[in-house]
Hints:
Elements: H1 7-15, E1 17-18, E2 37-41, H2 42-48, H3 77-85, E3 91-92, E4 98-99, E5 102-105, E6 110-113, E7 118-122, H4 126-131, H5 139-146, E8 155-159, H6 160-166, H7 182-195, H8 202-212, E9 219-223
Amino acid sequence: xxxxxxxxxxxxxxxxxxxxxxxxxxxxxxxxxxxxxxxxxxxxxxxxxxxxxxxxxxxxxxxxxxxxxxxxxxxxxxxxxxxxxxxxxxxxxxxxxxxxxxxxxxxxxxxxxxxxxxxxxxxxxxxxxxxxxxxxxxxxxxxxxxxxxxxxxxxxxxxxxxxxxxxxxxxxxxxxxxxxxxxxxxxxxxxxxxxxxxxxxxxxxxxxxxxxxxxxxxxxxxxxxx
Length: 226
């Protein structure tokens, strides 16, 4: 397990903020403000996440309203993700009904024909977000989280089988069966937690660190959502 961020790591967070401000990144004394962008190596990003025990008291999935039609174009969040991530575009009919098309499910390295076999996965599950800080958010913040189209890592079209195998687990108990995708998965997980100012628990931190030890120290770019 990695130790808490040192002063040197904190300096890296502050120095790599884009645009340059006096703020520090999540896990340091002053978090970046909403709309600001952080760029830093993923291992430093993980080291900067606060480590706290999780608490699921009071969690209900209905406290994260989704899927909404935020831009009122007739397509809800699920449909928007399906359209954005299709490798072969579906045909869009009345009321945004999608037919045909093809998608790649990176969790299990499969191509899926038609939208019926797909789920839209919250990369960091709703229950995990609740455990990690979202229990203190407003209803609007939880709605924004559940329908986050502002970062393509937040919501991902995957096979229904892989999504239901994952359920609400974090990387300490579930990783994608496609081993070649695991570096990307944990890197995106860290980025999503930074974006929303969420914590990690000790087992989760250790699992993320273990995977990242075998991965390139890829820079991540994250725009703060809150």
